[in-house]
Amino acid sequence: MFTCCRFIPFSGGPRKCVGDQFALLEATVSLAIFVQNFSFELIPDQTISMTTGATIHTTNGLYMKVKQREKVSVLAAAL
Ligand code: HEM
Question: Which residue's CA is the closest to the ligand 1 atom numbered 31?
């Protein structure tokens, strides 16, 4: 798939990042592993705002309470 400039941090043109596809796959796999193994709870009463520069990100961060999820065996859940 043609990905030039769709995600600005990888840049574009003949010297664009050669690892862009790998990095996007790695990000997807990392996110899947995080949500499988941890639960995320938003810390209340935060002012969450967005800043746009080379990338779009939160202005002051986005704080969450992260807890390890209890592992449930797929076989045990099916019984
Ligand atoms: C989120 C992850 C990544 C970001 C944001 C990123 C970003 C960039 C950027 C901005 C450039 C410079 C492009 C230019 O000069 O116009 C670059 C070059 C490069 N990146 Fe990445 N990169 C990432 C991950 C990776 C990975 C995982 C690899 C290899 C497995 C990789 C390999 C390279 C190489 C070899 C170049 C030099 C390309 C050249 O000069 O021809 N990058 N990257």
Answer: 19
User: Taking the model in full, what pTM does it have?
Assistant: 0.78
> φ, ψ for residue 24 (rounded to 5)?
-70, -40
The model's pLDDT over 11-30, given as tens digits with 9 standing for 90+, comes to 888 889 999 999 999 999 99
3, part of any domain: no
Query: Do the Cβ atoms of 49 and 59 come closer than 8 Å?
Result: yes
Which residue has 């400039």 as its token pair? 5
Does residue 15 have its Cβ closer than 6 Å to ligand 1?
yes
Domain extent for 70: 8-78
CA–CA gap between residue 24 and residue 8 (Å, rounded): 13
Residues, the chain, total?
Answer: 79
| Contact indicator for 59, 51 with CB cutoff of 8 Å | yes
